[in-house]
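Appendix B. Raw example, untouched.
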Amino acid sequence: MSFNVLIVDDSGAMRAVVKKIITLSGFKMDECYEAANGREALDLLKESWVDIILSDLNMPEMSGLELLEKLKSDELLKEIPVIVITTEGSDVRRKIVSDLGAKGFIKKPFIPEEVRKILYDVLGMTDEGEYGGDQTETDGVDF
């Protein structure tokens, strides 16, 4: 199974690093979209569906906090899990982004294994990349 990912960061170099780290982690991506700020991310989300968003906090035009607020207020977009990637790792900052709906938090610098673990945790997957939880038998059901 592969996922559509949106990386939001004002630094093109950091977007490239995050994309490379995700690839190195073994996480399966179908499409990887990029946006330089929250406003570009919202515009992209009007045209394309993503399964997960990885966003920086400090960006011009629309910050990651403002993006979280906009996503939280939209009935459809609020269902997309967001992982915040930032240099700011204080407990206060973590609480703020969690209260705004972020499902994960990665402090820069990071390593591929950490990124994969958080992506899997947020998406409800096992360490092997399979969906966890109740795997009820569906005898006789073919769809």
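End of appendix B.
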